[in-house]
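Record filed here:
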Amino acid sequence: MAKKNAKKEPVKPPPKIKYEDTGKFKALDRMMRENRGTRFE
């Protein structure tokens, strides 16, 4: 049951994690674009 609970916790709040991930990914993408001059979406 502990394993199921742990799996349900991160799956329940996907919008907050996704939003933060998007912001971090955007920042990383910007740095990579300036560093390498390439962009990947």
